[in-house]
Design a protein that fits this description.
Layout: H1 3-6, H2 10-27, H3 38-63, H4 70-97, H5 103-127
Helix pairs in contact: 2-3, 3-4, 3-5, 4-5
Length: about 140
């Protein structure tokens, strides 16, 4: 991977570090009393970061393909992969947590899903190759 391509991961890294810092700080403050399980938020953040990174790598690989629809398939494939993996993770958490589940943590994780998806789409738009007529 070229050094220029590594810079595309900066927004993902910043969001990951920001949310991780929030989880560490919230662990020692009063958010635990409010029903937010910071472990769930941290694990969702970690899973989202990993899936978004894999999705961007798939998009970088798809850019090298001469088929113009390969990039679209890469973006859509990563979105579907993210949706199914996170849906499965949410069902597993809800099943095993039972009555102790943290609804607030689930909603925060859904907001993180939207943030990571937005960042991934922005990165994909920056990565898209120029068209034949030279336009964007």
């Amino acid at each position: 991977m070229k050094k220029e391509q590594l810079y595309v991961f900066k927004p993902l890294i910043w969001v990951f570090l920001l949310v991780t810092t929030f989880c560490i700080v919230a662990k020692f403050t009063s958010t635990a009393d409010e029903g937010v399980d910071t472990r769930v938020v941290f694990l969702a953040n970690l899973l989202l970061f990993f899936i978004a990174t894999v999705g961007i790598i798939l998009q970088l690989i798809a850019m090298k393909n001469k088929n113009p629809y390969a990039m679209i398939r890469g973006v859509m494939g990563s979105m579907v992969m993210k949706l199914f993996l996170l849906g499965a993770a949410a069902f597993i958490y809800i099943y095993f947590a039972g009555e102790r589940k943290s609804t607030s943590a689930i909603f925060i994780s859904m907001a993180l899903y939207l943030i990571y998806t937005w960042i991934e789409v922005r990165i994909a738009m920056k990565l898209k190759p120029p068209t034949k007529d030279g336009g964007n």
